[in-house]
């Protein structure tokens, strides 16, 4: 049998404890080739996200993978950003005081890089978007062909028919840049959205953490150090003894879409008022009596159910064997 071509992925990320986990799972997955990490604000500011991305690649001994810095502000040029350092630590990686990375990001900016890669490999790049969608919206604005050239955008974002995690309306990645999210959702690109209605079903327990601890996996051991803070946050915020695997679930949806089920329809993002950042999905079953803001907009795929035990098992397997 000939070798199956690996899926080329770019991970757009704001590391971030569960970002670190997703990146390591990707690096341990033979099905994909990680061609770059692009960075964005969210869990930390963009410059720290870049530092952390470089650091994580050094930990994984994969400094052959370039890091490309993304936008420092929202698409509306807001610099007052919502940063989730109370979830991931001041350093984004569980307050471990890791040494500064030796490497540097490449000169290019993330939106240009995304446009260029999509042109270079038309239809063959999957972006796994694990933070606010600013870089991707900027790429869409830069190049009208981008949404056609890009293969797929698998994004972690939204709260479909459930409460958000920033407030009852909004999920964190969408809330980070709602205008950018609305541009992405209505761009016509092949989009698969994995929201917290799905990722809140994927719980990584204390027992799972023990399995990492007891393993010989190098990246598993590293993650055990940074997971402590993430566990305490979940205990306090959700009264759970485990943590949600948001980013790894989205990553695995890109690798093996059959781990989840999906529905299709138009998604719009609320950009004003108390529900700013809310994702509103229209499943198109109803014929409305008038033209709406959803009418004639392109459909996207939205994840509905997930095989949680399978996701946790794959995450453990890839990390224990790292
Ligand atoms: Ca993230």
Automatic annotation (TrEMBL):
Pfam family, one: IU_nuc_hydro
Entry function: Involved in pyrimidine breakdown.
Protein name per the record: uridine nucleosidase
GO CC term (a single one): cytosol
Organism of this sequence: Zostera marina (Eelgrass)
Assigned keywords, A-Z: Cytoplasm, Glycosidase, Hydrolase
Subcellular location field: Cytoplasm
Family: Belongs to the IUNH family.
UniProt EC number: 3.2.2.3
Domain (Inosine/uridine-preferring nucleoside hydrolase): residue spans on this chain: 9-311
Catalytic activity: uridine + H2O = D-ribose + uracil
Gene Ontology molecular function terms on file: inosine nucleosidase activity; protein heterodimerization activity; purine nucleosidase activity; uridine nucleosidase activity
An individual GO BP term: purine nucleoside catabolic process
InterPro entries: Inosine/uridine_hydrolase_dom (IPR001910), IUNH (IPR023186), Ribo_hydro-like (IPR036452)
């Amino acid at each position: 049998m000939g070798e199956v071509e690996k899926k080329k992925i770019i991970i757009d990320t704001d590391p971030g404890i569960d970002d670190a986990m997703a990146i390591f799972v990707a690096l341990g997955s033979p099905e994909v080739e990680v061609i770059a990490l692009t960075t964005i604000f969210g869990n930390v500011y963009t410059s720290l996200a870049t530092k952390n991305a470089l650091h994580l690649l050094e930990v994984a001994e994969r400094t052959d993978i370039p890091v490309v810095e993304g936008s420092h502000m929202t698409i509306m040029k807001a610099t007052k950003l919502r940063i989730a350092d109370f979830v991931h630590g001041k350093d984004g990686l569980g307050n471990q005081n890791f040494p500064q990375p030796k490497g540097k990001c490449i000169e290019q900016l993330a939106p240009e890089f995304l446009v260029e890669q999509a042109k270079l490999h038309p239809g063959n790049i999957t972006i796994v978007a694990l933070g606010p969608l600013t870089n991707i919206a900027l790429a869409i604005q830069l190049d009208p062909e981008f949404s056609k050239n890009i293969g797929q955008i698998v994004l972690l974002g939204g709260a479909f028919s459930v409460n958000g995690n920033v407030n009852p309306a909004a999920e964190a990645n969408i809330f980070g840049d709602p205008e950018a999210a609305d541009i992405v959702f209505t761009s016509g690109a092949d989009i698969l959205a994995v929201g917290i209605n799905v990722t809140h079903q994927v719980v990584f327990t204390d027992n799972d953490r023990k399995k990492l601890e007891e393993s010989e996996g190098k990246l598993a051991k590293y993650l055990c150090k940074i997971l402590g803070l993430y566990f305490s946050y979940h205990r306090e915020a959700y009264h759970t003894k485990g943590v949600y695997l948001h980013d790894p679930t989205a990553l695995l949806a890109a690798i093996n879409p059959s781990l989840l089920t999906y529905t299709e329809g138009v998604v719009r993002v609320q950009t004003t008022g108390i529900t700013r950042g809310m994702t509103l999905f229209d499943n198109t079953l109803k014929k409305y009596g008038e033209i709406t803001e959803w009418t004639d907009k392109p459909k996207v795929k939205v994840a509905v159910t997930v095989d949680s035990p399978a996701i946790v098992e794959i995450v453990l397997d890839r990390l224990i064997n790292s």
